[in-house]
């Protein structure tokens, strides 16, 4: 309560801005996740790896726009060049088939091992279109998903917040237990027996659910169970494609039928894509009688196509990707060391890190459901408020996604701040 009260006192302009915003935005909000009581900080601007709020505070951004902001708030030179060249020589939305869409598509196919790919504007859309493809391809309706899974604003199956009311649950069957292969197999077999299993949609690491890595045996088991049932295995790589040069699916040898992509692959612009096996993607081939429609005004918009291509080809090369995620692993190890013997623990993989505060600090977190059941939100909140005071921006739920340009010195400062925080609050941690 003291930390929250200091927060309110220290941010009068953000508070006033929030009061203004609620008269045109419900709750002053247009991205649910960014609502942080008592009011959100209004971010005035970002530069490189830093954010600046309305009251003039400066934060080292360790949340990286929930993984979409991989390239920092300042476009790296190759992305800036691609953008300015496209603006000067190509023009904005052209309303026609373009060179840039083919170029970005062939790059994504090669990098992520896809036969075919199509673009959308968000990861949410990419998942909705992938699910529609699975349904059309199999002629079945139901898709198995996991509690704690997040596949978009209208495709969220919370393990911790109240269930989102905007998903038609009849179409989705939720398994209570990410990383629980037996349970998943049971549910898939039951739905298959009813003759209605179209696919399984899963993250290789539950991101929004708490940054919980999927175990290889679990994910491979899902793939086998899907194959056996003639269902489409959809791997949601919207958040995880950054973790390895060909995405987590290739790294783990998961051989998904369909993959969904998003976030940083638009080079900082709104982006989504879905792709995979040719015969499944063929349901969208407009040369075919009765093909599914997939028309989005901005699917091939100039900025995302050019920025995304430059970002992947010239900035986030396979070598950079490997080195960057190794840095993330080292950071997680150092944080774990700092948290040893306290109520704070860390999960994740590579450049994605989850911070958890639990009663005994050593419980294994295997699913978003575990996170929901075991987490001490009061301690998480205290950490969040005090990290803000120290100038570090992480997501309140305890989520971190490294930015490529963050330096070792900046990371050192954060590790030091965490250690000092735990020391300061030894009594309660
Ligand atoms: N899938 C996963 C795994 C995500 O993490 C997200 C976004 O956080 C989405 C899908 C939705 O992407 P978007 O926010 O672009 O709709």
From TrEMBL:
GO terms for molecular function: pyridoxal phosphate binding; transaminase activity. The keyword Transferase applies. InterPro entries: Aminotrans_3, PyrdxlP-dep_Trfase, PyrdxlP-dep_Trfase_major, PyrdxlP-dep_Trfase_small. Coiled coil: none annotated. It comes from the Eukaryota. Keywords: Pyridoxal phosphate, Transferase. Its cofactor is pyridoxal 5'-phosphate. SUPFAM superfamilies: PLP-dependent transferases. The keyword Transferase applies. Belongs to the class-III pyridoxal-phosphate-dependent aminotransferase family. This is Pyridoxal phosphate-dependent transferase.
